[in-house]
Amino acid sequence: MGGMRKRDFGESLAVGLLEGQVIFFPEGLLGFASNRHFMLSRYQPTVEPRSPFFLLQAQEGDISFPLISPHLLMADFQFAPSREVLTKLCAGSAADLVVMVIVTIRDRLEEITANLQGPLLLNPVSKIGLQVVLEYYPVRFPLLKVPLS
Amino acid sequence: MLVLGRRVGESITIGEDIVVTVVEMTGSQARIGITAPRSVQVLREEIYKAMQEENRAAVRGLQSPSVLEEVLAHLWKKKEQV
After folding, report:
1. By CB neighbour count within 10 A (0-12 exposed, 13-18 middle, 19+ buried), where does B22 fall?
2. Running DSSP on this structure, what letter comes out for residue A89?
3. Best interface-test mutation with B: which of A8, A30, A53, A120 has the largest number of B CBs within 10 A?
4. What is the largest CA-CA distance in chain B?
C-alpha cells in the first residue's frame, strides 16, 4: 500500500489552496451549464485510511462529482491548454494549474471509469475552473485496471 | 431547424464572428470549415454529447459518498493481494 508519492494524492500546495474553497466555473460543466459554483473537498473515508478522491459539490442543487488526479492513472498524462483557455482561467501557464478528472462509479467495480477526455483545469489562485476536451484521451478509462501505486 | 443549401466553397455566417464553410463534398460526407473566435469551443456533436452524458453518469454514480468507501476498500484489498 505504501510507495505512492505524496503528490499523487494531490497533497501539493496548489491543491491545498483549493480545498474547502468555492471554485467558479464560468462555463459550467458540460451537461450542467447552470451550475457555476462548486466546492472542492478531499473525500475523507471513515474506515479506509487513505483516499485519492476529491469531491466537487455544486453550491446549488444536489450535484456532486468524484474527482481523482489523472497523473495517478496515467503517469504521463499531458494537456496543453491554449492561450484562450489560460486567459479564461486567469493563468500564466499550464504549470499554474491543478488538473483533476471525473470518476464515474457504476454498479460493478470493474466498470468504474475516469473521464480522461474531459479533465477539469483548476487555477488555485484565481479559483476558476474549466472543463476542457482532449480528444486523444478516452472518456471511459478503467480505474481499477491500474494498481494505485 | 434552419436548413440552407450551400455549394462547395460557400459559407454561412452566424452572428458577428462565426463563419461555417462547406470545404469539400465526398459522397455523403461533407468537410466543414469553421472560423470562430478562439473563445468559442467547437466540438463534434458526438463528442459533446458523450461528455455531457459522462458528466451526468458521474453524478448519478455518486448517490452517496459512501460509495467511494466501497471503492477504496476494494482498491486497498486488491493491492494487499498482489
Report:
1. middle
2. T
3. A30
4. 64
For chain A, say whether B40 makes contact (Cβ under 8 Å).
no
Identify the CA nearest to A146 among candidates A119, A97, A113: A113
Which helix (H) or strand (E) element contains residue B53? helix B45-61
Chain center to CA of B6:
25
Three-state DSSP state, B30: strand
Distance CA(B41)–CA(B20), nearest Å, equals 14
Task: Read off the pTM.
Answer: 0.86
Beta bridge partners of A64: A57
Amino acid in position A32: F
Instruction: Kindly report, residue by residue over A38-65, the tens digit of the pLDDT.
Output: 999 999 888 777 789 999 999 988 899 9
